[in-house]
């Protein structure tokens, strides 16, 4: 869809032409801060522009087949448990066995902790919420936290008291976690097209974790390279979706967040801000489920342990209502906490 078809004020149309933004997809693929810088528009004009473009895109664009068609994992009812009944209740059984699930949040919110937990729950039989296979964990910025994984393995009997000891004794968790480190986009694409495909085709893994999706894009591109960045982003997204659709496996992408500051005319002090997942609407349109982990103030205690409280929230999903559940990171893993705690 062309921007000329949108109901915009003439100065906004002229600013878009000067910036070389002709299509609605081009507008939605640029973060609000960069869009304001490129067009010279006021913040309120940028927000109205994005709202108008998003509404037009939803009206014209059909629902992606990945989300509602065969292969997305929603129609089959097969789920990957996160290893906690309270969190599984929020997610109606866990992550769908198909499609791209984004897990975003600030540093220290518990995103990697939950991803490591999924690396173990995927190895359980389906009767205990797993997929009875391994995981490919792709690291793009930090080293894989092997010590934390080993601690989680040693504490599985505490996290999963519902699993019989004879089942736990048969699982060799560390033998089925495949780790790849990719420093740039080229090595990431090579990993997805070769390493991941071979492991999936052989049935050695049924879960793919990318930690994180934003890191290689932020390292390789400057703010002015947004068009090239978006093309690379869509290329990575297509590879992830193709693997998920072909092998019917869940793909979990950890994403960073940015602060979005609101405009206030009543005060000259600091403007309030809210967290928004990185990579903008270009990436948001590629994911099936978007979850956010938030770290809250205070302390919760249980079983002689204390932890900072967290909250796992559903931002959007085709099969879930928006909502959240309190949780915390314990020695044995991420567990939900009752509201009174």
Automatic annotation (TrEMBL):
The keyword DNA repair applies. It is found in: Nucleus. Its main location: nucleus. One of its GO terms (molecular function) is ATP binding. CDD domains: XRCC3. Belongs to the RecA family. RAD51 subfamily. This is RecA family profile 1 domain-containing protein. It comes from Salarias fasciatus.
